[in-house]
Amino acid sequence: MACYRDLMEQYENPIEHTCDMQVGQTFEVIDCHKPAGMCDSAWETLLPFVTELAQGGGNFYDGWMRNPHSAMLSCNDGFRPVSFLVEVVE
Question: What is the extent of the structural domain holding 74?
Fold first, then answer.
């Protein structure tokens, strides 16, 4: 998780509630349904990769990840991005 307060002060309108994610939090995806407690914005970013991995695919971007059945992704909140390791669990 990151937080860019300088950018928030310069560009973001004040908002009361942002993100409920916690460092070390894990989620299990069943049948490509969004896990309870996961941010909608993060899920929109992760879903194409989750779907591809669930269908046996992987090897994104020609060998980007050491484990071809995984991806390291971040939500699209540029002020407070959260990174997620998405991997196949057997």
Answer: 5-87
